Amino acid sequence: MRIVLLGAPGSGKGTQTDAIIARYGVATVATGDLLRAEVAAGTELGRRAKPYMDAGELAPFDIVLGMIENGLKTLAQTNPKGFMMDGFPRDLAQAEALDTLLARIGQPLNRVLFFDVDYEEIVKRLLGRGRADDNEETIRNRLRVYEEKTAPLIDYYDRKGLLRKIKGTGTIDEIRQRIETVLDDVG
Ligand code: AP5
Ligand code: MG
User: Fold this and answer.
1) For burial by CB atoms within 10 Å, which of 41, 70, 84, 171 has the most?
2) Which ligand is nearest to the CA of 133?
3) pTM higher than 0.90, yes or no?
4) Is the model's pLDDT at 179 over the cut of 90?
5) Which helix (H) or strand (E) element contains residue 34?
6) For 83-108, how does the pLDDT look when each residue is reduced to its tens digit (9 = 90+)?
7) Which CATH number does the domain housing residue 127 bear?
């Protein structure tokens, strides 16, 4: 199974990853988590990415692509039953780079799950969470960046026949069940 979780900040991608890993045995590559780990470790890469994250802007392409390449390399060695990407790709350039990478190893994506949640619910969720970038101003910019750069990927993947829309409101368990109905046949 090779899937992408697509959706606005706060749409619940990270929340559902454990259940997906447990059921399908996939490994996860979450660029936001990887970037936060670099910031916490005080690496050069983390120092470069931090101002973008604090502002709710996308981190530079080369940093993020390097992480994905490393992640895929590790996955190839550990041999899980595929992978799930959370928070990547986030614009057209990243989506095309991912297509190229996966074509090179002969392992194209087989599903893209789009978590559909309205912005009012998102702002409520994120203000209630309190991560470093969960203040009102940054949330607003993350949503603006999402709308401008990431949302066009819904159409991009729909045209490839890969997109499955998941209603992202309701209980965490209800959403998990909706995910299973679109992934169980992938195996
Ligand atoms: P990233 O870490 O990806 O954050 P994000 O996109 O802002 O998304 P979130 O993690 O906030 O949302 P989520 O969908 O995972 O929701 P969650 O499950 O946590 O990126 C952070 C930054 O890193 C970016 O702004 C950028 O700077 C940089 N970055 C990352 N990837 C990049 C890339 N590819 N290229 C360039 N830059 C990149 O849920 C949110 C909250 O809602 C939680 O509190 C949760 O408990 C709650 N919740 C979840 N489900 C429900 C539910 N059903 N009902 C009620 N509450 C719920
Ligand atoms: Mg997340």
Assistant:
1) 84
2) 1
3) yes
4) yes
5) helix 31-41
6) 999 999 999 999 999 999 999 999 99
7) 3.40.50.300
